[in-house]
Amino acid sequence: MSWQTYVDSNLVGTGKISRAAILGQQGGVWAASSGYNLAADEQAFLTKVHANPESAQANGIRAAGEKYMCIRADDRSVYGKKGSSGIIVVKTKQGILVAEYVDPTQPGEATKIVEELADYLIGVGF
User: Fold this and answer.
1) Residue ranges making up the domain that contains 106
2) What is d(CA 52, CA 29) in angstroms, rounded to the nearest whole number?
3) Which residues contact 108 (CB under 8 A, 6 or more apart)?
4) Which of 61, 87, 94, 118 is most open to solvent, judged by the fewest CB atoms within 10 Å of its CB?
């Protein structure tokens, strides 16, 4: 399966994720939903945030021009919120899943989708 299929079917295709991307841990966008453009500095931050989760807690999370308040950050998962919208950034063995959701999707619904895809990818070596 291509990386784009994971974004289109397993994330955005669920109807719970509004925009998503998969980044390589070494940099670069492997796949992204249509119109979801992460600036180079945003990509750099998102690929390094798990090594220094305190940076997200102190500065928030920026993606596609939006800034989210960090509500949780550790060496695997970083969650952010902005009003009734949010962002989930999860590290796998080789990639970084970035997914945004909007109202009426609840944070737990979106988190479950992204974390389960991350578990699957980790299980198959990615």
Assistant:
1) 3-123
2) 21
3) none
4) 94
Q: Please write the tens of the pLDDT for every residue from 15-58.
A: 999 999 999 999 899 999 999 999 999 999 999 999 999 999 99
Number of domains in the chain: 1
Helices then strands, each counted (H, E), the chain? 4, 7
Q: How far apart are CA 59 and CA 93, in angstroms?
A: 25
Residue 9: count other Cβ atoms within 10 Å of its Cβ: 11
Q: Identify which of 39, 41, 47 has the alpha carbon closest to the alpha carbon of residue 98.
A: 47
Q: Using CA atoms, how far apart are residues 75 and 41, in angstroms rounded to an integer?
A: 20
C-alpha to C-alpha distance for 91 and 94, rounded to whole angstroms: 8
Predicted TM-score of the model (pTM): 0.95
Burial bucket for residue 51 (CB in 10 Å: 0-12, 13-18, 19+): exposed
